């Protein structure tokens, strides 16, 4: 198992490059994330480019969190000399690293085991210490953590797992993460898995890609990236809801437009989820068989809200 490498200028058209990280005698390469070290906190900068740090789980005799570094803008990666975080459980994996600007520190979210996750902090990006452990009931693997600004202008932090369960929370005065409400669910009965946001830049959209695990007969690949989505946070009747909407795209990419509004909806659901404009490019992730496309509409409080429309 290894890391592939693809580049894009618009998040829609991608060019494959040579593999970025290969397995070796110490273990295979599992999931992770990347961060541009603009502040050179790691001290690994060489030349003019800010180093890009790639964190991944190395699975060998143990599951260690490791680092690879690029000093040429992401063209080549060099494995760091040692793990940055030794194994803590037999299942720990999938490090997600982000800069916490308000507290001048770096955060690492890590899956531990069962439904347990952990947050670590660092000032150097090379040495990490445990901040706290958090239960995310009903979820496991591939954590994501990032800030979002709600409609009221206040900043909250989202902590999510591979199956799209999530907390909306804040960091208290002592720097610990604290959810402000019960766990939420973004997608239901979805083939999307292990979604990850791009490197976060203040006051810019938070963009997320999901891995589509749909079994599409006849395709020459195993899974694919879903449509890039812009994340948002809205509050309705005292409860925050995480939202995901397709990023802006060029008109030339659209083959067909479809107004999809099926199933029973209460007035509250109409406020949360108004009629959705669906394009065929988005609907591709819901392809089930040769009969047509299936678009799924999720209701946040239970009940069957699935509708089907052939395109």
Q: Tell me the series of helices and strands, N- to C-terminal.
A: EEEEEEEEEEEEEEEEEEEEEHEHEE
Biggest sheet layout: 5 strands, antiparallel
- The helix tally amounts to 2
Which overall shape is indicated by the principal axes computed on the Cα atoms?
Answer: globular
The fraction of residues in strands falls at 35-45%
Catalogue the unreliable spans.
276-311
What is the CA-CA span between the terminal residues? Answer: 37 Å
Range of helix content: under 10%
> What's the alpha carbon Rg, rounded to whole Å?
20 Å
What is the total tally of β strands? Answer: 24
- Average pLDDT, all residues: 83
Q: What structural class is derived from the secondary structure elements?
A: mainly beta
Please specify the SSE layout and strand pairing:
Layout: E1 6-7, E2 15-16, E3 28-36, E4 52-59, E5 63-70, E6 78-79, E7 93-100, E8 105-113, E9 116-122, E10 129-135, E11 144-149, E12 155-160, E13 165-171, E14 177-179, E15 184-185, E16 192-197, E17 207-212, E18 224-225, E19 229-236, E20 239-246, E21 257-260, H1 267-272, E22 276-279, H2 280-283, E23 287-289, E24 292-293
Antiparallel strand pairs: 1-2, 3-4, 4-5, 5-6, 7-8, 8-9, 9-10, 11-12, 12-13, 13-14, 13-15, 16-17, 17-18, 17-19, 19-20, 21-22, 23-24
Descriptive overview:
This protein has 311 residues and is mainly β. Helix content is 3%, strand content 41%. The chain has helices spanning 267-272, 280-283, and strands at 6-7, 15-16, 28-36, 52-59, 63-70, 78-79, 93-100, 105-113, 116-122, 129-135, 144-149, 155-160, 165-171, 177-179, 184-185, 192-197, 207-212, 224-225, 229-236, 239-246, 257-260, 276-279, 287-289, 292-293. Strands 11, 12, 13, 14 and 15 form a five-stranded antiparallel beta sheet that branches. Strands 16, 17, 18, 19 and 20 form a five-stranded antiparallel beta sheet that branches. Strands 3-4-5-6 form a four-stranded antiparallel beta sheet, with no helix packed on it. Strand 13 and strand 14 form a beta hairpin.
